[in-house]
Design goal:
This protein is of the alpha/beta class and 406 residues long. The protein contains 15 helices and 14 strands. Helix 3 crosses helix 4 and helix 10 runs antiparallel to helix 11. The structure holds arginine (ARG). The site of arginine has 9 residues, from helix 4, strand 6 and strand 7.
């Protein structure tokens, strides 16, 4: 009998997909669930997969790989989609595809399957990534094919005596991992409606936050966050700790309308406390140690990088080339950033580095000023020359000297 490897979340769609795929393709279904740091959602997931008919269920902890090979490059590149979204879901998908392909090869499966609909970005990310890694393996997306509504799915499950996951009570569609959480659907589909407090699980409402701010010092080495408040930590732990601290101070809520690759605008709510703090701190440190032109070039490439990740092109040579560029720049990004977290707000209040290009003697207005003030005059004369020249030759002025009135 042929085998299909299914990315299994434990939710309704992928639970129904198990019997659906088995019936439709006369196949054995192998469930794969990856731990990317989604926490609670993983409880009993193996048992749930087997209960709905999977012949085997793999649960693999990939948090370290996710942090090192996906989160970190995105952080160092400054990859933030449309100025706001730190790309938690988008970064997880190529890693999920990688392990689906790996397990499919190991299990001798003909296809991999996932629960994405035909309307989102995730299907693109998974399909393109899988194709890049092994074009011989077919990709099946049942929800793109079966045409069932949620009530249809519940009916389908009941008719087959399949336990319906309890999670269906939630009016929202969510996705979570170490780098953040996304919330869609329900009342959020009205872009004018303020997100109800119950959409948030990682961040406290600013009004309920502590009345005293928290100070966090993040140490970086070559663009890698390596410690918080003097305590060295591996990346997974560091991100998780920051999520706890920043979340408790209400930091990391994002409410935006974003452009999906498939051409629609959608209202998205995110919680990404660690990502928001780390991106802010990292960019601040770069500002201290990277020369102006390079800083701007890197910023532009960060936008390109974010688009690549968002649009499912993780396994493209362009991304690898930008990684090499970013890596070259990160050599000097070593130092510490001090941030203040207070009632939903996160701001930088201090930065220092052995590689700082900030020089007190050049910047100061006090005694010890080493800046050559007299050189400024000649510099400005030549700097402003083209502006002065074109101002003198403005068309309106020409018309006047010719005696023509507009
Ligand atoms: N809009 C975000 C993105 O495209 C979040 C997607 C959420 N995905 C999900 N399966 N709930 O990355």
């Amino acid at each position: 009998m042929q085998r299909i490897v299914l990315a299994y979340s434990g939710g309704l769609d992928t639970s129904v997909a198990i019997p659906w795929l088995a019936e439709r393709y006369d196949a054995e279904i192998i469930a794969v669930t990856l731990d990317l740091g989604q926490g609670r959602e993983l409880t009993n997931v193996r048992e749930r997969a087997l209960a709905v008919g999977a012949i085997r269920a793999h649960v693999v902890d990939v948090r370290e790989e996710f942090a090192r090979d996906y989160i970190l490059p995105a952080l160092r590149a400054g990859a933030i989609y449309e100025h706001r979204y730190p790309l938690a879901t988008a970064l997880g998908r190529p890693l999920i595809a990688k392990h689906l392909v790996r397990i499919a090869e190991m299990e001798g499966a003909v296809a991999i399957a996932h629960g994405c609909t035909g309307k989102g970005n995730d299907q693109v990310r998974l399909d393109v990534s899988a194709r890049a890694l092994n074009p011989a393996i077919k990709v099946i997306a049942p929800a793109r094919v079966w045409g069932m509504t949620r009530p249809d799915e519940i009916e389908y499950a009941r008719a087959r005596n399949i336990p319906v996951p309890a999670t269906i009570e939630s009016p929202y569609s969510t996705d979570a991992n170490l780098w953040g959480r996304s919330i869609e659907c329900g009342v959020l589909e009205d872009p004018w409606a303020e997100p109800p407090e119950d959409v948030y699980t990682l961040t406290r409402a600013p009004a309920d936050c502590p009345d005293l701010p928290a100070y966090v010092e993040i140490e970086f080495e070559a663009g890698v966050p390596v410690g918080i408040n003097g305590v060295a930590m591996p990346l997974v732990e560091l991100v998780a700790s920051l999520e706890t601290i920043a979340g408790a101070h209400g930091v990391g809520r994002i409410d935006m309308v974003e452009n999906r690759l498939v051409g629609i605008k959608s209202r998205e709510v995110y919680e990404a406390p660690a990502a928001v703090v780390l991106h802010l701190a990292h960019r601040e440190l770069e500002g201290l140690v990277i020369p102006r032109d390079l800083e701007r070039l890197k910023f532009e490439l960060g936008r390109v990088y974010a688009d690549l990740v968002y649009n499912g092109l993780w396994f493209a040579p362009t991304r690898e080339a930008i990684d090499a560029f970013v890596d070259k720049v990160q050599g000097r990004v070593t130092g510490t950033v001090r941030l203040k977290l207070f009632k939903g707000d996160c701001r930088v209040v201090g930065r220092r580095s052995a590689h700082a290009l900030y020089e007190h003697a050049l910047a100061t207005y006090d005694a010890g000023d080493a800046f050559d003030h007299s050189a400024a005059e000649g510099f400005i004369k030549i700097w402003g020359l083209p502006v002065e020249t074109s101002a003198r030759k403005k068309p309106a002025a020409q018309l006047q000297t010719l005696g023509v009135h507009a």
